[in-house]
Protein 1
Amino acid sequence: MKQFLEIKSVTAGYDGHVAISNISIKLELGKFHVIMGPNGGGKTTLIRAIAGLISYDGKIIVENVDIKKYRKKNSIGYLAQRGAQFYDFPLSALEVVEMGRYRFKETNHAKKEKSFEFLKEVRMASHAGVPIANLSGGQQQRVLIARALATESKLMLMDEPLTGMDPRTQSEFYEMLEHLKREHSLTVIISSHDVGFTTAYAENVFCINKCLVPHSEAVKLLEEPEITKLYGPNICLTKHYHTSSEEEDESEGEDA
Amino acid sequence: MLEFLKLPFMQRTLIGGELVAIIAGMVSPILVFRKMSFMSVGISHGTFAGIALGIFLGISPLWSSMAFAVGLGIWIGFTSKTGKISEDATIGTLFSFSMAFGIVLISLSKGYHPDVMGYLFGDLLAISPSDVYFASVILLITVLWYLFRGKAIVYATFDEDFSKIVGIHVDFDYYIFMAIMALITVAVVRFVGVVLASSIMIAPAASAKMLSKKFSRIVMIAIFFGMISIFFGIAFSFSLNIPSGPSVVFTVTTIFLISLIIKWIRGKRGSNNVKMV
């Protein structure tokens, strides 16, 4: 597999406080990578460093180019932590997606048309004219995914996008993301502390708690010693299995 | 009631006032959505020190208040951006300092200064052609800024992080916005005074926000509310022989209260419909 992004000895933080220290990771193209860790472990800091929203020491290389240089010409698909956006602002779903086309030199009409196509992809075309504040949490996230797709970036960063959402919405979100990843050849980096969904969808997991703890394929990695290393000794693991949404109703009560 | 329209100086005042209402209406929705209303209060009070400095130095108060307001706007913006000191504490300290500084300078100035009350509470009789020209120039600057950077500032207001990611120079746009807001405040102060300027800067947009959920429509409604407030404010001031600044503020506040009632009725109807379902 081809390497897409490399994080080399990255250290970053806020107001003199070091949130991540000396992180080095190599990420393959077209895969679903998950950054997992406890609250305060530095997941958001790492995502924000890759997005260029905070300064850092070290290097981040994307497609063999320093990401600082890469960002001057390219946008990155980015979804902030849920609740971080200013949803009170009166923009329609279509106008929000148009933000992703800001860099493109095209007419306003072309911007609107392209944005509408991305809304269709996330099954939100019927809500194009609805103010984003009037949409449900799950619908808002889908609009924000459409906005990230509108940048036409091959890199999609998502910072705990599903916090506070019910399991069915989370499941639908990941199914859609999996589909979009294949359609657009995306490399997805998502931060999460949800062990269950991570094991079901992630192809690669990086565990961080200020520094990189273990990393491996999700199914190999997420065993008790690693989880204990990450979340502490008082963690109690309960195995349960995820099924597709159609099968979910039939198999209720089968979780162990 | 419309007799005032026959008087040339009132026509001039009305034209200048409507220009100011248009400019304020264009910018005030951004102020309201960014929760920067108190910032405009700080800047409008800050212009008083600039005006007093002009009187003290014997130069045009317009130029000195412009320089003072822009400097203050950028400084408040910098403090707010860097977050070293809390924004409300900075503004609270600065605006009382500006008023105190202004009073001290005026006390130290030689001669009688009858226009000080006009600067504080607005005086339509004192509006000169140069004030109208100044308002026209500020309108031109604001329209140009809107055309070239309007979308960027709207996007940054909605989501600053994503705006940075798509290549918007968020910080640069923010300081330009603060400077333009300061210039607009100087123009507004000439019409309704230092103390009352924030009402024209905030109330039309706050009222419009209650009536629409589309940004472009909110801007249009804010401009309309500002314009009718100026018109009826001047008309009432003339026919009832009361000061113009407070008259405009009464009108704009009445519109705010009516908008609040409309919003409340709409909310009530909405909740009744939910109950029926």
Protein 2
Amino acid sequence: MPTVTSTAVTSIKALRRNPLRSALTTLGIIIGIASVIAMVQLGEGSSAAIKETIKNMGANTLIVFPGAASSGGVSFGGGSAVTLTPADAAAIIRDCPSVSAAAPIVNARMQIVHGSQNWVPQYLVGSTPAYFTVRDWKLKSGRFFNNDDVRNANEVCVLGQTDVNALFPSGHPLGKTILVQQVPLRVIGVLRRKGANMFGMDQDDIVVLPWTTLKYRISGSTLMNHNENAATSSTTTFSPAQLYPQQSQNLYPAVSSVQAADTPNPVTFPNVNNIQVSTPSSAALPQAMAEINALLRQRHHLLPGQPNDFNIRGLAEISRALGKTSALMTDLLTGVALISLVVGGVGIMNIMLVSVTERTREIGLRMALGAKPADIMGQFIIEAIVLCLFGGALGILCGQLLSIVVQSMFHWPVQVSVPAVVGSFLVSAFVGVTFGYYPAWKASRLDPIEALRYE
Amino acid sequence: MADVIEVRDIIKTYQLGGSPVQVLKGVSLTIAAGEMVALMGASGSGKTTLMNILGCLDRPTSGCYKLDGREISSMSVTQRAQVRNEKIGFVFQNFNLLPRTTALENVLLPLAYANGAPSGAKLRKRGVEMLEKVGLGDRLDHHPSQLSGGQQQRVAIARALINNPRLLLADEPTGNLDSRTSEDVLRMFQELNHEQHLTILLVTHASEVAQHASRVIRIRDGLIESGASTSAPAAPPTVSAGGS
């Protein structure tokens, strides 16, 4: 009884007797596997790019808003309560394992001035360095402000590209000083361009500064009046004490003994407009939401049954839609890949059938010399598998080359996919067995007498 | 001496266009071990059909066929393949060597399907020995296209002998060879018969070829005309059977 190895040796010898035909036969599989590999890798690359875009858009971020304040049955709407504090943001990043960054946000809309140029940025954001992590924002030049800048309420800011263009037509904003409400801010960094967000707002029209600076040096002690417009702010006069405050700010003013006795929670707690939170991936969003919910309920001393005094919102709908798009794309690629492999397999079957007809006499001779039908069948199936595996190996090579070419020519993102390579090998073996079976069966059923006489 | 081939009342019927055609109409013959027998007959006599049955390539419709003491007529396809591999060496008119394959590999082909065949260097040694025996020790790595007709047939003979068969079945072995080479090949058969007592069945229609055999079996219209066994006196090849 011939072993599998000896049959394989016989098959390889038979294939080597006609190298051109063998090569042409494998071409179908080579092209099929190569296109699969290239497409899967391009697909994974673009899928990664889509994920990156989603991240950029903020799909893996949550925003915690304060709840609605109401007085005598009159609600002031969402965000009107003054319940969120920078300490909440610090607690979220400390106590919620699913959260990768949390930044307290203080908003304002004020005029900025440099020399003869002035501008009212869309976003004047007071925050912590975590803001840049949450928004996944990179620097174009300069540096971000750091935690020391926040602690000392340093008069520094980071500008978006739009504001640089508005205030510094000649460029070079680094180290220059801009004025906000007469408060000078040194420009220490310029953000990379991000473009419009999905609602069409220019995200680059932004000034980011330490929240302490915005809250205590610029907006004054309360943030309830942060919607001042440029007209009023430019006419307001400030006392020298406000313009040039002490170097060290007392962030949390001491409560008097009477106050402390009256109110267990200090009412002068510094509040923030919202807290932006990011998670490592959009999959962690529900978990992070639950953790933040539990933490804030505890921190805000809410009893069971009492409604939340805050709201957590995410871009869940968008992230779901984009996730679906990505999955659809993968399915589509898989479908195309399967079709090309089936085409390659039919090519193998076709050539194997031709080969069986062409080698009828060889088959007859082998049978006369003692080959059993099973031996003949094994030989032809192994020939088909060898062809497919050889084609698969070459196809993987060509696919990788194609990916590299595409990457260097079009700068499309490409990721090497190990499962695709392993899968391609298995699939080519499977194609070999499936499409080699019928020709091999046909060969094994030949009558040796007829086969020997075949011309 | 024991009989290598023992055939009794073999009938072979083919279905041709719906109507049965009897090609062999009850053939009986015996061939003893060490005999060199020629099977002669005109085309259409049933010679080829009988040869296919004797070579275990086909099965009789009815009757008994014992090869080396084993009943063949009831065997399955797989069993017959094994019998062909172990007991029979085939030599064909058109050599039937695998193209683009060396002489040595062609010779070793039957061992690929044999039980307990040697492997590696031992296998190669056996093939080299066989080729040396037929005088082609210096042509081991030649392809059939690089060999003359006579050399190709000698490769085929080496291939037939590699499994130490009980029966060498040669179907018109000289049909594609010129007279001088034919003589060489037939002399080689005689030597094998004399020196190794190999049982040889030559299937031919040429009386010059049949002359080299010790006995001639003649078949005509599906029946044995003469020479069915050693005990029966062989009819002289020149006398027509219908003459008496």
